[in-house]
Amino acid sequence: MRPECITAVTKAIGRALNAAEIKGIEDRISRHMRQNAIKDPNGALSMSPEQRLNEAATSAAKELVYEAQKKKQRVAQTILAHDRIQRHLEQFPDMFDGLDRMIAFHADGKANTLSVESRARAIERDALRQMLDTLEATNPKFFGLLENPEGVQMLVKELHGQKTGDVDAAQGAKVFHEIAARLRERFNRSGGDVGQLDDWGMPHHHSQAQVAKAGRQQWATDVLPLLDRKRYVNEDGTRMTDAEVGDFLGHAWASIATGGVNKLEPGRGGMGSGMRANRGNESRQVHFKDGEAYIQYQQKYGERSLYEVLTGHIAGVSKDIALVETFGPNPDLAYSLFRDRAVKEQTLADPTKVGRLQKRAISSENLYNYVAGRTQPVASARLAETFDTLRSWMTASRLGSAVITSFSDDATMYLSAHVNKLPAMRLFANELAALNPANRMEKRMAMRAGLAMNTLLSSLNRFGADTFTSDAPGFLSALSNTSTKLAGATLRASGLNALTEARKRAYGVTFMHALGAVTKEHKALSALDAADHRILLSKGITETDFTVWKRASLEDWGGGNDAMLTPDAIYRIPDAKLADLGNPQKLREDAATRLLGVVLEETDVAVIEPGAKERAMMMSGLQRGTWKGELTRSFFLFKSFPIAMMTRHIQRGWSMPTGTGRAAYIASLIASTTVMGAVSLQINEMLSGRDPRDITDPRFGVAAMLKGGSLGLYGDFLFSESSRYGQSPFAAALGPVAGLAEDVLKLTQGNLMEAAEGKDTHAGAEAVRFVKSNTPGANLWYSKAALDHLLFHQLQEYFSPGYLRKMRRRSEKEFGQKYWWEPGEVVPDRAPDMAAMAGETA
Question: Is 50 exceeded by the pLDDT of residue 97?
Fold first, then answer.
C-alpha cells in the first residue's frame, strides 16, 4: 500500500496500522479489483489505474460495512444461543446428559429439545422432498435397475446454464438451484456468510486421492483447458496467461490434494476449528467453462455419482444450519465452552468423580464430532477398502432372508403407536396401502411429505456412477464397488428395503394424520394432556410452533387420512396469517422442521433404525484404515439393531413415569417381539426344508426371543446354516467376518489335521457349503431351498458321499427335527409336519 494511502487510513481510524492490517487491506482491495474486472472486463480495461483503485476501494468499503453488521448479528445470535443452551442444561442434574440430548436423539422422552441430528435430518428431508423433480430428472428406466447416462449429462449441462431442450432436466436444475438458494439464505439468517456466485451451477467434487496421485503438474495440465478463462483476470482487466493460471492451479492442487492441510498453521488450532458460520463463504476458485468440461473433469478426478454430489451438498448444508441454529454462529466453540463448564462445575461438586467426568467429556465430544461430521482421515485406503469389501460381501451373502427376520418390526411399530396414541386400525390400513405395489400414488405422496426416502436415495446414488466417476479405478476399488452393489441388490431382491420403507411410510402418514387431529382438537399446546402426549411434549415444541401448525389447512389424502399435517400444508400458510407471530418465512421453516423432526424420530423408533447415538457408541473415535478401526467395525456388523433396541425401546420403557407403565411396556415389548421372532424362526426352518421346531422346547423360546427382540439381523447370521453346523460360539459372537476367518481355517488347516489323524474330512462337502454361504444371493428366502436341493446338496454328496445322511442325523439328534424336503431330493415327498410344533411327529 502506498504511503499516502496508509496515512489516509490511519487518520480515518485514529491509530497506526500494523503490518498484518496493511497486508489485509491490500489483499482486500486487490481482490475487489479482480472481481470488478471479472464482472466488467471492458470497463476495467478502459479505466485508469487510479479509477480501478477507487472503484475497488468503494466496493471494499461496502464489504467492510457488511462485515461489521454481520459481526453484530453474530454477537447477538451467540448471546441468544448461549442463553438458550444454559436454560436447557438447567433442566438436567447431569450437564453432559443435557448436552448429549442437544446433539443426538434420545428415545426416552426426556430430551425437551430437537437435537442437532434430528434438526439436520428434518432440514435435509424437507429439501430433498422438494427436490424430487431433480431426483427424477434423469428418468430412470426399468424400475431403477438401469442407468440413463444421457439424462445425467443433460442435467449437469442444465445445472451449468446450458440449454439442452430437455424439459425434465431443465426443471430438475431449476428446482435444485431454488432449494440450494433457500438453504443458503436460511444459513445466512443464522449467522452464516455465504454469497451467491454468478456462475454457480452445482457443488464441485474432487477425489483427493486421484488429485494427489496425478501430481501438481499433471493435474494442472488436465484442468487448464476445462476452465472458464473469463473468470481468471488480472487487476487491470487483462486475462491471465497460461503461466499465471497454472501458478494459481498449483496452489489449488495443494489444497485439494492435502485436504486443506497446507493451510494449517502450527500452534493456531487444529483443522475445522474455524467459525462454522464462515463455512462456504470463500469464493470458489476452480471455474469450469460448462457442464461438458465438468463431466470430463469428473471422469478423471471424480469418485462420487451425480446424486451423491447433489444430495451430499444438501446434507452438508443442512447439518451446518442445524449446528448454527442450535449452538450459535460458532457451534464448535459454544459446545467446547459448555462441555468444559460441565467438567468444571461437576468436578467441583464432587472431586472424587474427576476421572469419570473426564471420560464422560470424551464420550460427549466423540458424539458431537460424529454428528458434526468431523471424522478422522482414512489411515490406509487399501485396508479400509479391503474390510469394506468383506463387510459388503457378508451382507450380500448372509442377509438374503432378512425380510423374514424383519417381522418383529410390526411388533415395535404397533407398540410405538400405542405409546403415541396413534389409532391402531388407521395404522393397519395405512400399512396395507403402503404394501400394495400397485399403489404408486401412496408412495409418491408420502415422499412428497418427506417420509421414507432412504431406499429412493440409495438406489438413485447408483445413477451417474459410470458417467461421473474416474474411468480407471483400481482393482480393489472396483471390487469394493461391486460388493457394495451386490449387497444393495440382495436387500432389494429379498424385499427387505421395500417392506421396511412401506412400514416407515405407513407410520409416518399415521403420525402426520394424528398430529393434524391434535391441532384441530386443542386450542394450544398447553391444552394437551401431559400423560397422553408425553412423548410429543418431550420434543421441544413451542407454543409458536403449535400455533403455526393450527393455522395450516390440513390435507385430505383419502382412505381416512383426511387431516394430514404436512410440510406443504405449513408452507402454504399465507404471510398475512402469520404476520402477528413474527417473520412468516422463518416461522414456516421452523414449524416444518419441527414437524418432520418429530415424525422422523418416532418413525425410526417404531421401525428401528440406528441413529447417531448408536453409531457413535460403536464407531466414534475409531479411524478408518487402521486395524483397530476396521476390526471394531467388523465386530459390530449386524449388531446395530440389538444396540438400537436397547437404546430406544428398552430405555423408553424404563423411562416410563410409573412402575406399572415400565412393567407394561417392557412386558409388551418382550412378548410381541418374541411371538414375531417365533414366526420368523419357523418360516426359516420350513424354507430350509425342515419341519417346524418344537415350541415346547425351552431352547426354542430363547431363540425366538433373541431373534425377534434382541438380535435382529444379527440373528440371521447366528441362526444361519454356517453357524448351525460347525461354527464355534466364540467366532459367531465376534461377527460374520470372524466367522468367515474361522471357516477358512477349518476348511484348510482343520481338514489337513483331520486327514493326518486318519479321520473322514468331508472336505469337499464343506467346501461346497463354504461357497454357498459366501455366494451373494444364494440365501434368498424364496429360492434357497430350490438352490440347495437342485445344486448344492448334489455337489456335497458328490464330493463327500454320505454327507447328507450325516446332516439329517445331526438335525434330528441335536434339534429334534426331520426334513419334509429330504436333502438331495429334487422334489419333496410330503408337506411340512405342522404337528411337530407341539412336539408330535407324523
Answer: yes
pLDDT tens readout for residues 428-446: 999 999 999 888 888 889 9
Question: ∠ CA(606), CA(557), CA(432), 5° rounding?
Answer: 50
Query: Exposure string (b/e) for 172-198, b if CB count within 10 Å is 16 or more?
Result: bbebbbebbeebbebbbbbbbbbeeee
Q: What is the pLDDT of residues 599-652, one digit of tens each?
A: 999 999 999 988 999 988 888 778 889 999 999 888 888 888 888 888 899 999
The set of cell numbers assigned to 185 is 439464505
**Residue 701 to residue 128: CA distance in whole angstroms:** 44
pTM, full prediction: 0.87
What pLDDT does 282 receive? 39
Query: What average pLDDT score do residues 511-535 get?
Result: 93
405, 680 contact by CB (below 8 A): yes
Q: Are 126 and 140 in contact (CB under 8 A)?
A: no
Residues 6+ apart with CB under 8 A from 595: 122, 512, 515, 549, 565, 566, 567, 570
Report, in angstroms and rounded to the nearest whole number, the Rg of the chain calculated over CA atoms. 30
- The answer to whether residues 630 and 390 touch, using CB atoms and an 8 Å cutoff, is no
CB contact at 8 A, 769 and 792: yes
Residue type, 70: K
Would you give the DSSP letter of residue 428?
H
Q: Which three cell numbers stand for residue 478?
A: 472396483
For residues 447 and 129, the answer to whether their CB atoms sit within 8 Å is yes
Domain ranges of the chain: 1-90, 205-262, 381-607, 656-838
Instruction: List the grid coordinates of 837.
Output: 410344533
Q: Alpha helices of 302-423 — where are they, by DSSP H? A: 306-327, 331-349, 354-372, 381-398, 402-405, 408-419
Of 75, 60, 74, the closest CA to residue 30 belongs to 60
CB 371 within 8 A of CB 622: no
Q: Measured between alpha carbons, how far is 784 from 517 in angstroms, rounded to an integer?
A: 46
What is the C-alpha separation between 703 and 684, in angstroms, rounded?
A: 13
Burial group, residue 81, by CB count within 10 angstroms (0-12, 13-18, 19+):
buried
Find the length of the chain: 842
801: DSSP letter: T
Measured distance CA(501)–CA(128) in Å, rounded: 16
Q: What is the pLDDT of residues 210-221, one digit of tens each?
A: 888 899 999 999
Contact 409, 500 (CB under 8 A): yes
- The pLDDT, as a whole number, for residue 302 is 86
Torsion of CA 623, 624, 630, 636, to 10 degrees: 80
Contact 407, 498 (CB under 8 A): no
pLDDT recorded at residue 198: 62
Give the integer Cα–Cα distance in Å for 609 and 339. Answer: 28
CA distance 775 to 216: 43
Q: What are the cell numbers at 285?
A: 476458485
Output DSSP code: residue 790. I
Dist CA 769 CA 765 (whole Å): 6
**Contact in structure between 836 and 693 (CB atoms under 8 Å):** yes
Three cell numbers written together for 261: 492441510
Distance, in Å, from the CA atom of 601 to the CA atom of 535, rounded to the nearest integer, reads 11
